[in-house]
């Protein structure tokens, strides 16, 4: 079953069109949303999280249209959302905050609610910090509190806006493990600027630029678009589309024609992303 079905979806802020004519269908599994700053990722995620409405096109979530209040309530019961910026009340404890969200999500039975809060804190590795005040947490720990509240009730649809921001490598690996388990039954849509997170975690990748979908397909198919277009060279190559000196002292050349003396390199998702977006990869199209 497809949990997300967007047809011709658009959204403007005043006269500025942030999202234009997006078609997207998602079933169970993890999909990564990539794109430069201002590409429209947060706008798209907020639409899928029912936090803002599309002003064009059709949105169906978990098999339902967004017709009225009753449909929205039903969808929100099965939806978890980690916004890009979650305002945390610093005075609350980790447990207190996640329990507060659980109350809002209508976990009325105290025993069941406490059990669920402990379960999600355990899932994100915060069980030992549950009594700590949020104001005393590191940025990465705070991000995991945000993830914990999104996981309450094992939602069938999980929308995560930059969940890996602020996480150290061990925390990112732990997050990948958690999402890998969650995504066996749920549809997970996450945005990130880390192509390696998408390569490690997602089957599918959607690239947005200037509010439009530039690529939608399997991660391996996107990586394949860079095959034969990435090289290692002992010398700097003037005029390369993208190049940098790596830690080994050799230069990685992405795009352009094969430089003399250069060796072919295994392409990564990042190479494919840089090639696909060209100058848009670094400049906001907005
Ligand atoms: N509330 C708003 N009012 C006006 N313009 C907005 C608003 N929210 C977003 N925008 C504009 O819409 C465009 C898309 O923004 P969005 O936050 O969706 O991009 P993004 O891909 O998530 O960017 P980032 O990677 O920087 O988080 C940007 O040009 C942004 O300035």
From TrEMBL:
Domain ABC transporter, residue spans: 4-235
InterPro entries for this protein: AAA+_ATPase (IPR003593), ABC_transporter-like_ATP-bd (IPR003439), ABC_transporter-like_CS (IPR017871), P-loop_NTPase (IPR027417)
Entry-linked Pfam families: ABC_tran (PF00005)
Domain of life assignment: Bacteria
Keywords linked to the UniProt accession: ATP-binding, Nucleotide-binding, Transport
GO molecular function: ATP binding; ATP hydrolysis activity
Protein name as annotated: ATP-binding cassette domain-containing protein
Record keyword Nucleotide-binding present: yes
Family statement drawn from the similarity comment of this UniProt entry: Belongs to the ABC transporter superfamily.
Gene3D superfamilies: P-loop containing nucleotide triphosphate hydrolases
Xref: PANTHER family: ABC TRANSPORTER, ATP-BINDING PROTEIN
């Amino acid at each position: 079953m497809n949990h997300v079905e967007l047809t011709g979806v658009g959204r403007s802020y005043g006269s500025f069109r942030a999202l234009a004519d997006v078609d997207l269908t998602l079933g169970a599994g993890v999909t990564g949303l990539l794109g430069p700053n201002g590409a429209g990722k947060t706008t798209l995620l907020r639409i899928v999280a029912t936090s803002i409405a599309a002003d064009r096109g059709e949105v169906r979530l978990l098999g339902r249209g967004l017709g009225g209040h009753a449909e929205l309530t039903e969808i929100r019961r099965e939806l978890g959302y980690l916004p890009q910026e979650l305002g945390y009340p610093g005075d609350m404890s980790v447990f207190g905050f996640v329990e507060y969200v659980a109350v809002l999500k209508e976990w009325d039975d105290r025993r069941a609610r406490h059990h669920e809060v402990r379960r999600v804190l355990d899932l994100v590795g915060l069980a030992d910090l549950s009594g700590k005040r949020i104001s005393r947490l590191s940025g990465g720990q705070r991000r995991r509190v945000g993830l914990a509240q999104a996981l309450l009730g094992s939602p069938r649809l999980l929308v995560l806006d930059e969940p890996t921001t602020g996480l150290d490598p061990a925390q990112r690996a732990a997050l990948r493990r958690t999402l890998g388990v969650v995504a066996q039954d749920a549809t997970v849509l996450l945005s990130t600027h880390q192509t390696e997170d998408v390569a490690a975690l997602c089957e599918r990748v959607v690239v947005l630029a200037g509010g439009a979908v530039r690529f939608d397909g399997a991660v391996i198919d996107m990586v394949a678009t860079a095959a034969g277009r990435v090289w290692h060279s002992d010398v700097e190559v003037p005029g390369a589309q993208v190049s940098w000196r790596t830690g080994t002292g050799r230069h990685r050349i992405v795009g352009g024609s094969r430089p003399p003396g250069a060796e072919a390199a295994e392409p990564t998702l990042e190479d494919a992303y840089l090639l696909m977006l060209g100058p848009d990869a670094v400049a906001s199209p907005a």
